[in-house]
Amino acid sequence: MNDRLDAQFAFLNEADRLKSVLRATTLCDGSRRENSGEHSWHLALYAMVLADQAPKGVSIDRVIKMLILHDLVEIDTGDVPIHSSGGAAHASADTIAAERRAADRIFGLLPPDLRDSFRAIWDEFEAAETQDAIFAKSLDRVQPVMQNLACDGGTWVEYGVTYDQLEARVGTKVARGAPKLWDWVQTKVRPWFG
């Protein structure tokens, strides 16, 4: 029992480091950059509040688990904003490999049953092939959009984001998992871009 608890708390203490990983997106009030721990918490809340936007059969409990775990790898890799000049690196083979190594290390701190369970959830989110993962990815992309809208463009201004870039990098993912949500979001986004 002590070895199991030692491993569980080692993981939990390591996960606390996610609070130190700053993202490009600011808080809704624009006062500072959001950290990845805050982002994960906010996404879990998004899943609960926007559960009615999920396609039939989506398990919101599983979606929440994915959203809580999905960015833990940023403890090792940092956050690569999709609209930054390094945004092309967001889905590069090097970034994907680095994130997998980070997942091995971080989830490897856990007892084997939790390690395997959490890693499977993380892998499912990354693959984005199940309905749960597709919806989770949609929320992961829409949350920064809403925060940028709340603070008059936020980092869109900083990175010179165009509507076409937003549509290509974000809209397609959101529309895939929550088409009605993206339809609504577009009514808010289009006027901002003029």
TrEMBL record:
PANTHER family: 5'-DEOXYNUCLEOTIDASE HDDC2 (PTHR11845). The lineage of its organism: Bacteria, Pseudomonadati, Pseudomonadota, Alphaproteobacteria, Rhodobacterales. It comes from Pseudogemmobacter lacusdianii. Pfam families: HD_3. The keyword Ligase does not apply. Keywords: Hydrolase, Metal-binding. This is HD domain-containing protein. Residues 15-182 form the HD domain. The keyword Disulfide bond does not apply.
